[in-house]
Specification:
This protein is α+β, with helices and mostly antiparallel strands and 514 residues long. It folds into two domains: 164 residues, Alpha-Beta Plaits, CATH 3.30.70; 296 residues, Bira Bifunctional Protein, Domain 2 (BirA Bifunctional Protein, domain 2). It has 14 helices and 23 strands. Strands 7-19-20-21-23-18-15-10 form an eight-stranded mixed beta sheet. Helix 1 runs antiparallel to helix 2 and helix 5 crosses helix 13. The protein is elongated. The termini are far apart. The structure holds adenosine-5'-triphosphate, magnesium ion and zinc ion.
Length: 514
């Protein structure tokens, strides 16, 4: 890798000419030490000069210390020298020009740009591909300190590999199958439920009203989850917040994958002011016209402050953030169904199986690696009983690409040590109306993952005595469970399994419309 940097430090005052010898010596020693500490490459401070309150330095390096890292180190050493003796302080630095040249594994399919990069130039030399990255001189100092340059270089490679291989191939390997089950209908379950007035579309995209009839079925499923899964395994219910600010999605790394195929949140905005006067004009307009002036309204609200709950568990983690868990509190086992989850499901209108406002159950556990693995397996076994025995569904389990690799930007960073046990299993149900078992698409109704250290690390959660912490979680929506169930069993209660019927005293009669 080749670097060329011209950087300018701002000083609190001019440097006296007698300081020049010392500065020269500092730079010389810095270069020599850097050169000595590496057995290859070349590092040079090629030029420096100072005028009034500016200090300009030029650094070039080939397969050696990156100049921006050198600048961060030099800043410390320089302030020590000139601060003490000459009472001149370092105010900060700015890049005049920073060019990084590096070899690429593959050449890009098409050119692209990146934030904080002024120019990206791809070229070939002796059959090899290279990129010349010119960093935007406006890049802020603290971004440089926090690793943005390194991430820019990595991002170039990631984007090229995405151009070649597309969005990651979904890994999918069936690991268990209930076997064929008798189904009682070949109709589209959404239409069945709509025609029976169990569910009704609203004016808003992919949102439904759940009538008392279908709600009773969801409540039955809750009790089944408690009796077969949460009670025997000692899970407790809690209420996780459903408005998620950016700080959480930054730590969970969802933010990095925003609208990249796997994380499509609804955004939340705030009023720029809550003063009645600020909105008076809008209120008057609505009163007079009976319409909403959405454009005008948009001017009066903030940029998004975050979004609505997308995957339920990220905001759970701010509870434990920065804390050290007592050994006796481990493992933690919780579940949440305290509110809906929102996803902007793009494309055409969907049925009840793919809604924008969904009612999801989240199952979450934290403990030592052994505990997390054990609980993950127990939860999986119980889920299998619920789907296969209680609901009598034709289902299968498949090992798939973990959701956190889909939903964040990172596609192939899987810790190899964790590889064998860390991962996601999806439960998929056969939907007879879609066609044959072999050719049709099955419906994912639930997943369960052992995630490893990702979340405890991301939210800086520790455990007493330095026990390594792992977590796992799983989600499934009532919409998916019920769509799958009706798709196989139909609406007639007489065809429903006995174990499920035990949980239904009386199904409320649907309201009839004339
Ligand atoms: P899909 O690939 O079908 O969109 P997903 O991978 O986005 O599903 P996850 O993020 O893994 O789903 O969420 C886990 C569970 O949440 C799913 O198994 C399903 O039960 C439920 N779910 C996800 N999206 C929806 C939706 N739009 N409508 C209803 N349920 C959903
Ligand atoms: Mg999805
Ligand atoms: Zn989760």
């Amino acid at each position: 890798m080749k670097h060329y940097l011209e950087v300018q430090f701002t000083l609190s005052g001019p440097l006296p000419s007698e300081s020049k010898g010392e500065i020269e010596e500092l730079f010389k020693q810095f270069s020599e030490k850097t050169q000595e500490s590496r057995d290859k490459g070349e590092f040079k401070i090629t030029e420096w000069k100072t005028k009034e309150t500016k200090l300009d330095i030029t650094i070039s390096s080939v397969d050696s210390l990156s100049p921006h890292v050198a600048v961060l180190r030099l800043r410390k050493q320089l302030s020590a020298v000139i601060g003490k003796k000459y009472r001149v302080g370092l105010r900060g630095f700015a890049f005049i020009k920073y060019i990084i040249e590096t070899e690429l594994e593959e050449k890009p399919v098409k050119e692209f740009t990146l934030p904080l990069v002024k120019n990206l130039e791809f070229f070939e030399e002796k059959g090899k591909s290279f990129v010349k990255i010119e960093i935007d001189p406006e890049i802020e100092e603290d971004f440089v300190e926090k690793g943005a340059i390194e991430r820019i270089i990595r991002r170039v490679g990631e984007k090229i590999s995405k151009q070649h291989y597309g969005a990651k191939k979904e890994h999918h390997q069936i690991s268990w199958y209930s076997g064929e089950k008798k189904h009682h209908t070949e109709e589209n379950p959404t239409q069945l439920m709509q025609n029976a007035n169990w569910i009704q579309r609203t004016n808003y995209r992919n949102q439904w009203i759940l009538s008392p009839t279908i709600t009773a079925l969801a409540e039955a499923l809750k009790q089944i989850m408690i009796d077969y899964l949460y009670e025997p395994l000692g899970f407790n219910q809690m209420m996780i917040p459903k408005l998620v600010d950016w700080s959480i999605w930054l730590r969970s790394e969802h933010a990095e994958g925003i609208y990249q195929g796997g994380f499509e949140p609804y955004f939340v905005v705030q009023p720029k002011s809550a003063d009645p006067e600020y909105f008076e004009e809008i209120a008057d307009y609505i009163t007079i016209t009976k319409t909403i002036p959405t454009e005008k309204l948009a001017e009066k609200v903030s940029a998004p402050i975050g979004g609505l709950s997308y995957a339920q568990c990220p905001p759970f983690w701010s509870w434990l953030q920065g804390k050290t868990l007592a050994k006796e509190s481990l493992p933690i086992k919780i579940f949440d169904w305290s509110g809906p989850t929102y996803r902007y499901e793009s494309g055409s209108a969907y049925g009840f199986e793919r809604v924008d406002e969904l009612h999801r159950i989240e199952t979450l556990f934290i403990g030592s690696p052994e505990q997390a693995k054990e609980i993950g397996i127990q939860v999986k076994d119980k889920l299998r009983i619920i789907f296969e025995e209680v609901l009598d569904l034709e289902v299968r389990e498949a090992k798939v690409t973990p959701w956190w690799l889909q939903q964040s930007a990172h596609e192939d960073e899987m810790d190899t040590a964790e590889d064998l046990v860390v991962g996601t299993i999806d439960y998929e149900a056969y939907m007879p109306y879609r066609g044959s078992r072999k050719e049709s698409e099955w419906l994912e109704i639930q997943n369960i993952s052992i995630i490893g250290q990702k979340y405890p690390k991301g939210f800086s959660v520790k455990a007493e005595g330095n026990i390594e912490l792992w977590s796992g979680c799983g989600g499934g929506s009532f919409e998916r469970f019920l769509t799958a169930f009706i798709s196989q069993k139909g609406l007639d209660k007489n065809n429903w399994p006995e174990k499920f019927m035990k949980y239904i005293d009386k199904l409320p009669e649907p309201v009839k419309f004339h």
